[in-house]
Amino acid sequence: MRFGKFELFPKKYGWFPYIWPIYLALPIVNIRGEEGVKLFIGCAMIALFAVTYRQLYWATGQTFNLWLALQLGLILALCAFYSPYNFYLGFFTSNFIGWYTDHKKFNIAISCFAAVELLSLLIGSRDLLVTDLPFLVPFLLIMLVMPYGIRSMARRQHLEQELDRANEQIKELIKREERMRIARDLHDTLGHTLSLITLKSQLVEKLAGKDSERAQAEAREIQRTSRAALRQVRELVSDMRTITVAEALAEAGEILRAADIAFDVEGDPRLTGVSDLTQNIVSLCIKEAVTNIVKHSRATRCSVTVEIAPAEVRLQIEDNGIGLAARNAGDGDGNGDGPFTPPGDSVAGNGLKGMAERLSLIDGALTVGPGVPGRSDTPESGSRRGTRLRIAIPLIVKEANKEGETA
């Protein structure tokens, strides 16, 4: 409901604020027997109460306190001079008390509210029927308990908003990290390739009139180099897109089988309910781990286990290669798993360090250790135990938003 630039209630609350004013019909019914000035004052107080209801959705700080105090005063006046049954208007106030995030202010507000409601019933007790008490007391208790529930819900919504903001910051950090990685790749690989093409094209220009056969050979070399540059560009572009764990495992399977490494997956790689952010980071870790296996492990078999626990996602990548015995992985004695420690300055070590850095952005953990004998070993592997990477990422389960927002 908008009239020009005027907005009756904040849009973020949806239709919820428009439902409660229906109950303002109750005090109107309670004053229907009044006449003259008393009827006029009663209608004015009900109208003012409606104004306080609207303003409390917009007010903050001390202004919020003043409007809430005025609303309590109107409830007391309507109960004292008109009908004690107007104490039901306390449901309006009870809702707004739950908006207080400060513990001290919340306790003060709910104490004042309880005092006003009890005083309203005591003043109007002469007009109450004894048979009404069994119905009035439960409603009074509900009004006193309701602010605690609303406050808890508001606190949870506030935490969810903080979580959303934190996830946005993490996404920005990941984008920044990927930009830096792409810049390094462009400088280290593509930049070198283009420089080589430039030098060879200058050489072809010089040899064109002197040694045509050598010039043709250099031209063919330029073609091969340019194709390599094109492949590098395609790899960079493919790395930039978001992929799921299932897609990453499918690509990993193709790469490993092409390298004559047997590959199997246990568990459900779809990771239903896991955020795109988490899946993208895990996918990048899988790609890095598979690259290390193909380049450095000399393995004949690789297995991946995917598991969703109640509080975390677990992923294990294990091979039966030569292992990381020469590197400072695991717990230092080579007999068990331990928190990740960068194994020197090797290419594999840099890859593992990058995985650990990515996982740290979402509070994930990486452990590196030797493989388990009898699990991934084969007769061809002899006494090799291979390498086992374990990734654990905490899951944060958010409940669906309910009506109302944090004030």
What's a quick, concise take on this entry?
Residues 283-395 form the Histidine kinase/HSP90-like ATPase domain. This protein is an alpha+beta fold and 407 residues long.
How is this structure best described in words?
The radius of gyration is 35 Å and the shape is elongated. It has helices at residues 16-19, 25-30, 36-56, 61-81, 90-97, 103-123, 133-207, 212-240, 245-258, 276-297, 347-360, and strands at residues 2-3, 6-7, 262-266, 301-308, 312-319, 338-339, 365-370, 387-394. The strands form two sheets. The protein has a six-stranded mixed β-sheet, covered by helices on one side. β3, α10 (276-297) and β4 (301-308) form a beta-alpha-beta unit. Among the domains are: 2-128, no CATH class; 242-397, Histidine kinase-like ATPase, C-terminal domain (Heat Shock Protein 90, 2-Layer Sandwich). The chain contains eleven helices and eight strands. The longest helix is centred in the middle third of the chain and has 75 residues, at 133-207. Residues 366-388 are annotated as: Disordered.
